[in-house]
Structure prediction request, 816 residues.
Amino acid sequence: MSLLRLSKISKRFGPTVALDGVDLELRQGEVHALIGENGAGKTTLMNILAGILQPDQGRMELEGHPYTPFSPLDARRQAIALIHQELSLFPHLSVSENILMGMESSRWGWVNGEDCRRRTLQVLEDFHHPEMRPDRAVAELPIAARQIVEICRAIAAQARIILMDEPTSSLQRPDVKRLFELIQRMREQRISVIYISHFLEEVREIADRYTVLRDGQGVGTGELGSVSDENLVAQMVGRPVKNLFPPRQQSKTGGTVLRVEDLAAPPSVKHASFELRRGEILGIGGLIGSGRTQMVRAIFGLAPVESGILVVGNKAVSARRGSPLLRIVQGMGYLSEDRKGEGLAVALSVADNVTLSRLSSCSRWGWLALDCQRQEAQAWIRRLNIKARTPSQPTWTLSGGNQQKVVLARLLHQDADILLLDEPTRGIDIGSKIQIYEAITQCASEDKAVLMVSSYLPELFGLCHRLAVMSRGRLSATRSVDEWTPETVMQAAIGGGE
Amino acid sequence: MLASLSKWFARFGPFLGLALVISIFALLSDFPEQYLSFRNFRIVLAQTVIVALGSIGMTMIIISGGIDLSVGSSIALTSVVAALSLQQGIPPSVAVLLGIVVGAFVGYINGLAITRLHVVPFIATLGMLGIARGAAKWLAGEQTVNPAETWVNQLAVTFPDPAWLLVAPGVWISVFLALLMALVLRNTVFGRRVFALGSNEAAARACGIPTQRVKLWIYTLAGLFFGLAGVIQMSRLRQGDPTVAIGTELDVIAAVVIGGGSLSGGEGSILGSMIGALIMAFLRNGCQQMGWPNYIQEIIIGAIIVVAVAIDRWRSSR
Prediction:
């Protein structure tokens, strides 16, 4: 029988229709995958379920009774807990304080520390993480451990329905496995889970049924066992998708444009050497935290370098005394994995963001020609198919995928010869992914050199000409993509030998 | 090792600073026995009371990620209210209470502006800085209010009567309230909420914490302390002066920040803020003893604030 039933849920934000008559049925003890591109309305739907937003229209029923949560607290009281896409923890507080926030054991307003500690230990025990200390500050925990804290919070609330918004986006494979084991255990305890994810593989691994959202409408629902990947993707994108990746251009094997020799940027990068050639896409695989990001940052002058040689074109440059400005002058462009933190100035307009690293294209004597800036941005909006109404729209109003395209547009506008891309498609929808893949391939065919860090193996194999793998701060030898298999990449990443 | 050193420093850094300030002046002074005398300590403590009381309330506000710029004006307003009440022949205890309540009311209005009108704390309290000061001048008729002598004037005297109190009653009141608030912040559900709010407001809301109501409480409660500081101010001056305590909010904020509070919220402690207030008081006192002009004091205190925060940044970046 259905535990939760939504019918004809609608929600508008000003002129934007976020949800338009969505139905959803959740059965007891099932894992229900909610899939769809970014901007399809999944997060809005979650927020409505969690009591953060109120729907404009529609009915929600929990076990046959009307369910109208007016606040997150109210939703939690009715046993619905939300685990956020972006971790919502209190970095200054302890593990125990985080887990029990909002439901501490107390008497007359005074917290019963002993009982809080006991309850925390109990929850951690249940989640098979007894090694976590309740009094540790969350700021000191690695990101995967923070996720555990967040999940434990939902468990501590004795939720019957847990909403998970892309819970694996910051987890590594072993932690994903552990998370899935937990979800399995929840299923056994008749807890229902609504699971949002972009990763179809993941959804298949863990979920029983699915609902696809597109442009605020439910476009399909059913058993996962009886639907093909192609069919799911077609429902998400709204058109059949034959190939995720554009056909690989034969690398013209131009000259080396960037040579990195014996780069060391402790503690995370111990040794890295590689050559990047004109017209190629070089992939860097490896686990999160293996030093890939730090390597790229060190090359771009954002992280301190201890030793190493950097040759750009055929000119040796100082690796130790680098700064982003210097690297940009030398022809490099950098796309950060942290889009909101580093990639974009989200409060500024699309036009400002696109032209930011080369304002000289539309300024004279330090004065900006605003029309010219808008036109140039408009050209990129059209070329990368960015869904923005106007170039002067603030960037934060765009969906994740479109924001990422803005970042890429900035690099392209900057006309960098060497593109350093760190997780260029992380957490964005398939439609945007395909367009970003196309743009990257296009860059390579225009004789630029692309270095791409990615945790998503199909992407590395589908796009790159050559691959190297980072493991515990050491970069493997670079080999042609045909000489790798997903298994050998994983082996190298886990670090089979030095 | 380094981590534990850094933790140790976080806890005892302000103490170290205080010890440093006292020993430097003891060394510089021609009369160290006078500087280090109990008599001088009593003077310093009595001088600290107003900033100390203010920083108890401010610590709570800053931990929650807010700020209050209206402290000085609030002190002036409440000192005028208390003085006027005494002048009207209202019993001293009621007059004191009135002053405190007016302080809480000012805080409540701040809280309303922040939560209902969605004005950021900096601006809301900047507005109140003007409003409360204006109200004080208006009530006092733009001159000082001189009430008759009562026991209220004994609250902040350097040499208390009876002598076994050793220090001014106001000092004892501050110590008691500081302990109480330290406990409240550490051990109550409300205290948790305050930290949660400053650490991650969105997460706090998602955890079902009534963030707006908590904020309203924080500003109102802090207002109580500012009101009490105003009463002590009146007691020290023996009059209600609407032009008093200009810029006191900056001293109070500095005390919190020197004591380890972070303006981005989530960090801070009452003990730290008390030490911060003492550091500034001993600096002032030391400079006076040395016969240094006022401007040197100002330069040193300014530098100390920046250095204290720089050390804190350096520590947390390790």
